[in-house]
Amino acid sequence: MTMTTIVNGDRHTQVDSVSVTQTSTNTDVIVTGSNLDARGYSALSYTVAAATNDLDYTVYGANVSDFSDKVAIVAKNTCTAGTTETYAVTPPPYAYYCVYLDATVDATHGTLTVNGIAK
């Protein structure tokens, strides 16, 4: 997660962001580095893009940082190869968020890019 301060005139806005890419497997796994801590922020958004092959993704929210109480915010959804899907919420109702990835068709793997921001 990267913390950045955006300056616009006299206004300073702090944002946390992630940008990660991962190849699918035949199981539902967390996209390493996709975690966002939304505490203290008023908006959260993710974009996911499948470069090759259709991929399934799920966005989870949780109130415990180890995601032991995770809830599917976006149930398993397919991101078609060459397209981008989005999730956005204002205000974020959970403290922590992450994205999980799975191959839509077993043994037909692809690469998913996840970009997220909390601001």
Summarize this entry quickly.
The chain is an all-beta fold. The chain is 0% helix and 59% strand. The protein contains no helices and ten strands.
**Count the helices. How many?**
0
CATH class: Mainly Beta
Overall number of strands: 10
Mean of all residue-level pLDDT scores: 88
Spatial order of the strands in the main sheet? Answer: 1-2-10-5-8
Decide which structural class fits the backbone.
mainly beta
Reported for the largest beta sheet, the result is: 5 strands, antiparallel
Please state the CA-atom Rg, rounded to the nearest Å: 15 Å
Corresponding CATH architecture: Sandwich
- What shape does the CA trace take? globular
> Ranges with pLDDT <50 over ≥5 residues?
3-7
- Summed up, the domain count is 1
Strand content: over 45%
CATH topology: Jelly Rolls
- Amino-to-carboxy terminus distance: 13 Å
Please write the string of helix (H) and strand (E) elements: EEEEEEEEEE
Helicity level: under 10%
